[in-house]
Amino acid sequence: MDRAQTLALASTGLGLVVLGLKFGAWWLTGSLALYSDALESIVNVVAAATAFVALRVAAQPADQDHPYGHHKAEYFSAVIEGALIIVAAVMILKDAAAAALAPRPLDMPLTGIAVNGLATVINAVWAALLLRRGRAWRSPALVADGRHVMADVVTSLGVLAGLGLVAVTGWLLLDPIIAALVAVNILWSGWGMVRDSVNGLMDQAASPEMLVQIRSLISEHGAGALEAHDVRTRHAGQATFIDFHLVVPGEMTVAESHGICDRLETAIEGALPGAVVTIHVEPGEHAKQRGVPVV
Fold it and tell me: Is the pTM value of this prediction over 0.70?
């Protein structure tokens, strides 16, 4: 297993621990808000397991049926996770509506808050790690998992604050109201994950900052060429596909132009981990005078 797969597998195990703590808090109190928080943790575990499977598939090398690799498998993980979040939110809203009509007193609220608080601290630390590593390794599956866990942290903090108010004020209707607010927050988180995944599946271009870096690398390492134009990029999981047309003097030999292409590929792939570069060489008369000048 590579490092991303190991982290996804660890996320599944830790999610089970947090799930146990949150269901314990719900069992102690009977709080619908804590139940909704625990229900989201079930989605966390399933999503982490899905991310692990997606990362295993994405790591497979290119083959005859998938000559560009299996990188986009990670986006399916994020789509599935977003769909699970929406299902969980609908279930919570249904239960919250029923509980609002017949609110019930809470048992051992302070103990339940303490147990849920411990689970929230664990989640906060883990979410920060997933987001940092996922962005550094450019893994959509890990980033999606980290965002989901962080959303769980935010909702858990809201639940804890609300239950504190219930314990102090005795206003039982707050419990289903908090559960409904948790569901709305979960829906918003799920929508964000699905939106980002669709962008990836639709071959979203690299960020403007990365595009500037690519153009700079072409300009710095393309000595011997005249210009580069039609620079295009697309993300696919941890890979970034980059292609462009490189204009060289018409009298340049194939071997010389190939040497420039090798130099550019080495520079770009060295500066941008996961980059896959394709260069189309053209003679000087094809210069557009509006591409990337080579210095």
Answer: no
